[in-house]
Each structure stands twice: as structure tokens, then as C-alpha cells.
Amino acid sequence: MLETLILSRIQFAANISFHILFPTLTIALGWLLVFYKWRFNRTGDAMWLNVYFFWVKIFALTFALGVVSGITMSFQFGTNWPGFMEKVGNVAGPLLGYEVMTAFFMEATFLGVMLFGRGRVPEWLHNLATVLVAVGTSISAFWILVLNSWMHTPQGHEVIDGVVHVVSWREVIFNPSLPYRLSHMLLASGLTACFVTVGISAYQLLKSSHHKPAQRSFKVAITAAALLAPLQMLVGDMHGLNTLEHQPAKIAAMEGVWETERGAPLLLFAVPNEETRSNDFAIEVPHLASLILTHDFNGEIVGLNEFAPDHPPVKPLFFGFRIMVGMGVLMLLFSWFGAWKVHRGLALKPLVLRAFVVMTFSGWIATLAGWYVTEVGRQPWLVSGVLRTADAVTPVAGSSVAVTLALYLMIYAALLYAYLRTIFYLANKSLSESPVPTSDTQKETIA
User: Fold this and answer.
1) Distance between CA atoms of 21 and 3, rounded to whole angstroms?
2) Cis bond before residue 350 (omega within 30° of 0)
3) H helices of 174-211, where?
4) What does the sequence similarity comment in the record state about its family (predicted)?
5) pLDDT tops 80 at residue 445
6) How many domains does the chain have?
7) 379 by DSSP, 3-state: which?
8) What is the mean pLDDT of residues 48-55?
9) Is the separation of the CB atoms in 95 and 147 below 8 Å?
């Protein structure tokens, strides 16, 4: 059973890791498309339409893969985690149904109009379709985050004969961690979409430095990223305070705090050692962890030893958290530097553009690291205090799970490779397409 549990967890992690790449991009990319279309309608400048047409192709491709990977992921509730739906299906089932009824149907209905309707339907209807697709992606994120947040901070329910029943849908939906987790995820999507846009645009500018649609999309995305990055850090701080209140064991693992202490140091680097229950090779800043987490130099942080043996594995959380924060700092610095350059009308040299190309998928890295911290940090619980992960796993043999895991990994690797190849193919193809001419009086700030 232990082998089945571990393999099932790895398989679900692989599925959700692949799936989350795509909605993380489409949620905010949909709103960038709304902005591009609004700018075209407002100015009449057809160059904005060129930007829109290019990015709507990438949106459609990303949306399709998100739908397909989401369907296969939902199958695993029955195949790998039957105990989950048996015990909390009264909560999970309706919430997933709400997501389909309020979001997916809207997206599916208007996506076709957005992709193929221009010139076939009135312009106002095409504009409305673009807005509603963006709204649909955000509503979808809301319902998924409602369920996931409830799994971390469950309330509004009662357990009768081992089955969870809803007492208050208001409390279930608006559970304590939802505002912070939803805001954190939406901002993560914004940064991911901005850096994908910046990276692909930089790639195009390396090929053709005067490609005007790439100049436009670069400037819009780098400006948005420069605004979103500090806001994400502020929301992350509030999310940390909420997690400290409701999931202190997770915070202790993230910070590598073994013994309850006041004025806990911030570990810049260490190697947590679960055998000795201490940290090796620690480089620390005195009192800083307490200051960040409690806003008090001498604030108390409860140590992992208070939760033994029911605390999450330490190393994945400790290093995952630092990867997430490190990528966030890099995105902040890159976005501020890029925004400063373009708004001063300064040319971006090839070396700088190559650096932005390297940062194309930095949002994915930060998001995956953050999700690993979030989900691994809930262990050994599937629903905190309600359902243990080991009690929900399938009884099938581990060898069967291993076969399906191998198949999933091969298919997902092939799909991801094809997806990335297609994106860069579209980026190269757009360079040879004749853009709609714009007025000679319009000035571009990126050379």
C-alpha cells in the first residue's frame, strides 16, 4: 500500500504539474487579449490587431491543452483517489460542477467566436466574446481555488458516519485562506503571462529588431509585470500570515524551524536534516524570519517538533519556497529594469533580449515551486484535519500505478515538447507575415 500511495502521489503531482502550466498562462493572457482589442478599438491602430491575432493563436493552443490535461486529471479522483470523493464528494462534486456550469460553458461557447468570428459577426459581439472568455478563465480559477483552499482550511461542514456534509456553503466557499490563495494565484498568472509575452517578444526582436508587433507586446507586458511583481510580494506576505495562523507546521517546514522560538532567524541557505532534526550548513539572518512572519522582531514561530510526527516533509518545502521567492525576486528586477529601459526610449541590446528570452518561463518555475510548497505542506492530510492522504488512495497494486505513471510522463513530455515547438514556430512565422501598416507618425520606444 505504501508503494501505491507514493506512486499515486507522484502520478497526481505529474498530472497537476503539467495541467497547471496552461491555465496559469491563459487566465491572464485572456485579459491581455482584451487590452490589445480595446487599444485597437480605441485608437484604430491596426498594429494592435496584429498583436491580438498573434497572441490569440497561442491562447487557443494553450487553452486546448489545459482542457485536455484537466479532464485526465479529474479521472484520477476515481482511479487513484476513490476515498476522496467517497468522503468529501458532497463538497468537491458541486464545486467542480459550478466551475463547469459557470466558467467552462462560457469559455467553450465564446472561444469559437473570439477565434473565428471577426468579420463574420458584428464587432461589438467579437469584443464581447473576447471579454467573456477572459471572464470565464477567471471564474474557473475562482472555483478551483475555492475547492483547493477548502482542502487546506476546511469549514462549513460536519462529518456524519465518516462522510462530510455541507452545513454552510457560504463558509465552504469563503473559507479563511481563499482570499489570499486566489489573489496569489491570479497575480502568479499575470506574471507568467507577462513574462511569456516578454520572452517571446524578445525572441522575435532578436530575429528582427524593428518588428513592431513584438515591440508593442514587449512594452505592454514588461510594464504590467513591473506593476504586478511588487503587488505579488505584498499578497505573498499576507498569505504567509494567514498560513502561519491556520497551518503553522507548513510555515515551520518552509523556514526550517525545529524548535519553537522567539526572534527566529531567516535561513538564507541550509540543508534540513530530519534525522538530527536540525539544519546543516545554515546561513542565517537573526530575527528576520520572525519579523517577516509576525511583523515583530521577537515574534514566536512554533517549531516542527511540536507537530511530530504529523508534519510535512521539510526539504521539499524548504527548498521549494526559496526557489519560488528567488524567481519572484528575479522577475521583479527584470521587469523593473525592462520597464525603465522602454519607458525612457532606450534600446534593448541583444544580450539583454537574450536574458529576457531565458526568463520566458520563469513564471512557470515560480508557480510550480509555490504549488509544491502548498500541496506538500498539507501532508499527511488530503483535507486538513478531515481526511488523511493514506486513507483516500486506491487499493490497486503499485505496479499498475507505475505503468500508468510511465505512460502519462511520456505523453506529457511529448505534448510539452510539441507545444513549445509550436509557440516558437508561430513566433518565427509571424516575422514573415506582412503587418497591417500603421501611421508614420506613431513612434516606437524599443529599437
Assistant:
1) 27
2) no
3) 178-207
4) Belongs to the cytochrome ubiquinol oxidase subunit 1 family.
5) no
6) 1
7) coil
8) 92
9) yes
